[in-house]
Automatic annotation (TrEMBL):
<dbReference type="GO" id="GO:0016829">
    <property type="term" value="F:lyase activity"/>
</dbReference>
<dbReference type="Pfam" id="PF13714">
    <property type="entry name" value="PEP_mutase"/>
</dbReference>
<dbReference type="InterPro" id="IPR040442">
    <property type="entry name" value="Pyrv_kinase-like_dom_sf"/>
</dbReference>
<dbReference type="InterPro" id="IPR015813">
    <property type="entry name" value="Pyrv/PenolPyrv_kinase-like_dom"/>
</dbReference>
<protein>
    <submittedName>
        <fullName>Isocitrate lyase/PEP mutase family protein</fullName>
    </submittedName>
</protein>
<keyword id="KW-0456">Lyase</keyword>
<dbReference type="InterPro" id="IPR039556">
    <property type="entry name" value="ICL/PEPM"/>
</dbReference>
Length: 299
């Protein structure tokens, strides 16, 4: 077992751990590629969330059903983490294999610049948490994943999020019991996926808040859970909330509307769909820096 280093974060207010220690509630929108990541990075959020659903769909055109692998995910995580200024929370499914894969995944995500990794207790291949027919591994195996993840990290500023999908198949009692076990195993943040009512969210907060780990909620409008506001969740005892589909859903609708207009009219002129002009696109992707470099160094 290697020793952990605790990074001095007194001069790094942007670290996720430091934000949570200050008691600030974290709203993290889902990002999955660099247009969305760069836009979200400018909006003042305390963290961003790399969604596995979004990466699987945007990178490979496949559903979030265990089809995207470690190499795809860690590569995308590194690209996003290095291209933004906000802390990045990243989905790592079940750790992409057995326990030694969990260790490898944690070390890879940490080296890529991610600040918090999400590990699930589903069987492989896993599925999106708001789809049916999810199955979880036995509790002892799920706890071992978290123990390995906690031991594998090199800095305590790298947070381990332990997610359980037990609610759908085994009920809320089992999900809460797993949350307690994950906190005892050293998880920094506990994630009870897809409670099915406001009362269930309230009960999760009552039974797990203050239990040795921070508490995260997943807001998926039109999914299995009701959407609650950040204020409501904070009052219930939650510390963070992710909105994985906040960008995917609107981007897909805007793309469909814009392309339908082009198909009907043979032009984009007059389209009612809001859009960036080229000046804003150039600025977003960093062309002003290129032009400044050329002024200084190009012959």
């Amino acid at each position: 077992m290697h020793s952990l280093t605790t990074t001095d974060t007194s001069n790094a207010p942007g670290t996720l751990r430091r934000t949570l220690e200050r008691g600030e509630f974290v709203v993290a929108p889902g990002v999955y590629e660099m247009f969305t990541a760069k836009i979200a990075d400018r909006m003042g959020f305390k963290a961003l969330y790399m969604t596995g659903y979004g990466v699987s769909a945007s990178h490979l055109g496949l559903p979030d059903a265990g089809l995207v692998g470690y190499t795809d995910m860690v590569g995308r995580a590194g690209t996003i983490a290095q291209g933004i200024t906000r802390p990045l929370i990243a989905d790592a499914d079940t750790g992409f294999g057995g326990l030694i894969n969990v260790r490898h995944t944690v070390r890879g995500y940490e080296a890529a610049g991610v600040q918090a990794i999400q590990i699930e207790d589903q069987e492989s291949p896993k599925k999106c948490g708001h789809t049916p027919n999810r199955r979880v591994v036995p509790l002892a195996e799920a706890v071992k994943r978290i123990e390995v993840a906690v031991d594998a990290r090199r800095s305590k500023d790298f947070l381990v999020i332990a997610r359980t999908d037990a609610r759908t198949a085994l009920g809320l009692d089992e999900a809460i019991a797993r949350g307690r076990a994950f906190a005892k195993a050293g998880a920094d943040i506990v994630f009870i996926e897809s409670p099915e009512s406001v009362d269930e969210f309230r009960r999760v907060g009552e039974e797990l808040a203050g239990g040795g780990a921070w508490l995260i909620a997943n807001m998926v409008p039109t999914g299995r859970s009701p959407e609650l506001s950040a204020q409501q969740l904070q009052q219930m005892g939650f510390d963070l909330a992710i909105w994985p589909g906040a960008l995917m859903s609107v981007v897909c609708q805007a793309a469909e509307d814009a392309l339908a207009y082009l198909a009907r009219n043979g032009t984009t002129e007059g389209s009612p769909v809001p859009s960036y002009d080229m000046k804003r696109l150039h600025e977003l992707v960093g062309f002003p820096e290129v032009w400044e470099f050329e002024k200084r160094y190009a012959s």
